[in-house]
Each structure stands twice: as C-alpha cells, then as structure tokens.
Amino acid sequence: MTQYLEFEKPLAEIEGKAEELRAMARANDEMDVTTEAKALDAKAASMLDELYKNLTPWRKCQVARHAERPHCKDYIEALFQEYTPLAGDRNFADDLAVMGGLARFNDQPVMVIGHEKGNDTKSRIERNFGMARPEGYRKAVRLMELAGKFNLPVITLVDTPGAYPGKGAEERGQSEAIARSTEKCLQIGVPLISVIIGEGGSGGAVAFATANRVAMLEHAVYSVITPEGCASILWKDSEKMREAAEAMRLTADDLFKLGVTDRIIPEPKGGAHRNAAQAIASVGEAIAAMLKELDGKNAAALVADRRQKYLDIGGKGLAA
C-alpha cells in the first residue's frame, strides 16, 4: 500500500475508492466496474499532476523524507555491479549509517559511498536513520583515500537529516571527523560525483557532497539545518517549519540557481517513491553523464575544478 503524505489526502480518497471498486469486482465476477474505475483513475492522475505541479519547499521536504523513497542500498543494488562492501574506520567501529565499497558502474571500477536510512523499523534503528557517527565519516575518508590510491572515481549518494548529535559521537570527535571528510573530498585527485537522493542535511551531507559535480533529485532538499531546527532557533517554535522552508532556499531549483548544484534529475510523477525503478534509472543516466564530463582530466585539474566550484558558489545567484 502506498503511504500518503498529509497534502496527498484528497488523492488517497480517490485512489482508495478506485481500489475498493476493483476489490468488489474481484469478489463478484458478474460486476463490471471498468468504466467507473477508469474515471476515478483519470481524476486521480489529474489531481496528482496538480499537487506536484508547484510543490512548496515544505512539501518538497515531506516528499524527500518519504519512507518509501528509494535509498542508497536500492541505488547500489540496481546501478552497480560486483559491489564489495568495505567496513570499519580501522579505529573504533563500523557505522551502518554509512555504506560503501568497491563496485563497477557501467563496467568502470568505482568507489561508491552513501548514507543509508533503512527501510523498516529494525533496519532504521541499525542504520541510525542515516545519521552518521564519527566512525562513519572516518570510514568514508578511508575509502576515498583507497580510491585515490587506485585512481578510482568516487560516487557518493547523500540522504541524511544530518550527522548524529549524540553524546558519544561528540566525545569521539564528530565535528573533526566531518571536517576531515570534507577536506578529503577537496584533496583527492580523482573524479568525485555526488547525488542528493533525499535529504541533504547540514555538515553531515557536505562531508560527502564537496564534489566536482553535485546533482539533486527534483524533490530532494539540501540545507544547513532542517526547517524544524531553523524555526526552533529563529522563532522558538518548530511549528513554523513552513515559513523556515520558504526562507531557506533548500530546493533543487533554488540551489541550481545559486550554483550549489550542477544538475537537477527529474523524478517520476508523484515523486521517486511512486516509481523507484524510473527514479533510479534517471540517477544512473545522470551519473554516467557527469563521469563523462570529467573524463580525461588529470588529478591537478580535478582538484582545481573542485576548489573553484566552491569559491564561485553564490555568485551566480547574487548576480541574478
């Protein structure tokens, strides 16, 4: 069953009625509901178009967080071949919120790293809802160093509400680990490509997304803090998250205009969760195109390209 978001409730009613009619027809062979069901389907399709035509920033946040949206694990299983996971930071532990390893993408050897939120209660708890601890970022640094050593492109898949802010994480140097991961992104002399597949939250996302090319799915979000957190700080009221989302310019369109991201990947009608296979295929096409753009550049050119990209951020939007 599809999980409907709050703003999709009218759509849920129509699609629910269509399914009820079909269930009645399945129970009674003599009942023909084809015409009525098709009329409801057409009405639902029209409503879906209308709902997603101009999503507000807050609604985009809701879509980006949808529980059925494809996650890092889904992308790796569908797009990469011969994936060999690599675990641990060689210092403290293995952080299951970060997954990564060697793989092939279109027969090209690569290193893939990403945040994994999990897809049910058990896996979400194991993965800490995609909120990495210091050992997760130190694992990412280790994998990026390995990729640099063997001249392998690095592909990162970002989907996190932010780095884990717990006491243990702070004691083990959370801020330093995030900074080291961001620094490593800027240093490695291989192509580095990042895709924001859901939430790109704060330094926890930047630590993977300081890349030569950054793409965002159409309904993904990328910001320094969640709208709820921003509202709590500015207005002392987390219920003002809608106003915060409007002000934060966290959507793919806003960030493309500012030069923070380089490409917007279209999603299926109704969001990636309604047609995961199509969304994953679109991400695969974007990764292939971005790898081609960087093909043939030497290490010095890649590092310089990355550095200049971040020096230029904001100028494009400010000039407009």
Task: State the name of the first-level CATH class of the largest domain.
Answer: Alpha Beta
Please compute the radius of gyration using only Cα atoms: 21 Å
Whole-Å distance between the termini? Answer: 44 Å
- Amount of helix: 40-55%
Report the sheet with the most strands, covering strand number, pairing sense and barrel closure.
8 strands, mixed
Q: Give the low-pLDDT segments.
A: none
Number of helices: 15
Total strands: 8
CATH architecture of the largest domain: Alpha-Beta Complex
Q: Overall pLDDT, averaged?
A: 92
Family: Belongs to the AccA family.
Subcellular location: Cytoplasm
Catalytic activity: N(6)-carboxybiotinyl-L-lysyl-[protein] + acetyl-CoA = N(6)-biotinyl-L-lysyl-[protein] + malonyl-CoA
Pfam family, one: ACCA
What would you say this structure looks like, in words?
Strands 1, 2, 3, 4, 5, 6, 7 and 8 form an eight-stranded mixed sheet that branches. The model has no long low-confidence stretch (mean pLDDT 92). This protein has two domains: 6-53; 61-319, Alpha-Beta Complex (2-enoyl-CoA Hydratase, Chain A, domain 1). The protein is globular. Helices cover 52% and strands 16% of the residues. It starts with 8 loop residues before the first helix and ends with a helix. It has helices at residues 9-27, 34-53, 57-64, 72-79, 121-126, 134-149, 167-171, 174-187, 202-209, 227-235, 241-248, 252-258, 276-294, 299-312, 315-319; strands spanning 80-85, 98-105, 108-115, 154-160, 192-201, 213-217, 221-223, 263-265. With 320 residues, the protein is α/β, with parallel strands linked by helices. InterPro entries: Acetyl_CoA_COase_a_su, ClpP/crotonase-like_dom_sf, COA_CT_C. It is found in: Cytoplasm. One of its GO terms (cellular component) is acetyl-CoA carboxylase complex. One of its GO terms (biological process) is fatty acid biosynthetic process. Acetyl-CoA carboxylase is a heterohexamer composed of biotin carboxyl carrier protein (AccB), biotin carboxylase (AccC) and two subunits each of ACCase subunit alpha (AccA) and ACCase subunit beta (AccD).
